[in-house]
Amino acid sequence: MIKAIRHIGIVVDNLEASLHFYQDLLGFEMTKRMEESGEYIDNMSALTDVQVTTIKMAAPDGHLIELLHYKSHPRSQNLQKEICAIGISHLAFTVENLDEEYAYLSKAGVPFNAPPQLSPDGYAKVTFCGAPEGTRIELVQLL
Fold this sequence. Notes:
The chain is an alpha/beta fold. The protein has helices at 15-25, 39-45, 98-107, and strands at residues 7-11, 29-37, 51-58, 64-70, 91-94, 117-118, 124-130, 136-142. Strand 7 and strand 8 form a beta hairpin. The model has no long low-confidence stretch (mean pLDDT 91).
């Protein structure tokens, strides 16, 4: 039935800060930017009079994320859930050298839960950081 994962949508409050994080710091490439409004987006979002900027961004392997910045509707603030709450808890990205990424992102002010850790099975080195809108990002280096 499912052929592929199309993209993951992330609602953001500060579009410029989020673009900086995903594009400049993590290396995603912007592939499409749209200003959306009208009946179609109203129907798809189950909202009325939507005005939203959508930005598709590709990882080097082609997988997509989509940043959504709703100008017409207030974004809910401070709804950060615990990582163990039901629902999507984080996005995980594979990196080449986690220690280098950790140093680079830390210097750029990105908050981390902890320095890179070796997984109990020795398969990977892992850490979690936070994107500007609060999305948890897991960075993984396969060993």
